[in-house]
Amino acid sequence: MAQDLVVQRPEGLYCPAGDFFIDPWRPVLRAVITHAHSDHARVGNGHYLASAAGEHVLRARLGDIHLQTLAYGERIVHHGVTLSLHPAGHVLGSAQVRLEHGGAVWVASGDYKVAPDPTCAPFEPVRCDVFITESTFGLPIYRWCPDADLFAGINDWWARNVLAGRASVLACYSFGKAQRILSGIDASIGPVIVHGAVEPLNAAYRAAGVGLPDTQHVTEVKDKADLRRALVICPPSAVASPWIRRFGDAGTAFASGWMQVRGTRRRGGWDRGFVLSDHADWPGLLEAIAATGAQRVIVTHGSGPVLARFLGELGLRAELFETEYGGDAVEADTQEPPA
Question: Is the pTM of this model over 0.85?
């Protein structure tokens, strides 16, 4: 029986034939990184391999690392394992990892979404024998609305707050979610202010050629009246900090896939909740899995048991990997917002 191309180890997902890890959660010698969210990309590894499209963001988050990059679709061979990276559609630079060895093809998805997003390359289905998939929103209740409807709602909420003379504070994850929101809003409604945690990622996106509207730090606003017309993009943690006080009586909203669940917005104390996620919803997960043609599917973080059971009922060989993904300690979309 052929050895599995990817197995579980205490350090993370390991490719024995190639002697490297994919998104390890403990320091290792060689790490292939699917994207720069901090539950997948951590400091301390000896050598990093990631997509060229994600270089700016990865360096912005991890600093001075020994980084090798690959263009999407470019192939390299390491210890006899052919490796290539393919767009995952999750955030800028996100990649699926394709491994080929001994006549078998495995793909590790990392995090992904199939919905269109102008700030990153779209998800690319990769045919394989075994597909390792995330399942962050792996329940049938999670179904995203079209972006046009979502951003119409955000713009309307912002415009109504402008008429009421108060700022619109929109909390979201600083990397990926913030830039996707910036790309979809109507910036003619008012000034756009971003938190200090967001702007370095904006700079990395702009350096990668992604167009974003002009943004300001709050300290750069000269006319204080602009604070009452502004859309303020910040991490959720900032809403509970003294930083938020300078905006006075502001409307608050949270943008997350968790807003799909009735009661989550109320428990968090938000005025509005916008259902926006950089992960695939239930139909997106099933669509992506089917497109791979894989007969064996290994499910990682999220609602893994539910998705695995459903895939088994479809006749696929479905299994689970226990991972430490979804544990971003800052403000990841993979964590429910605090009550």
Answer: yes
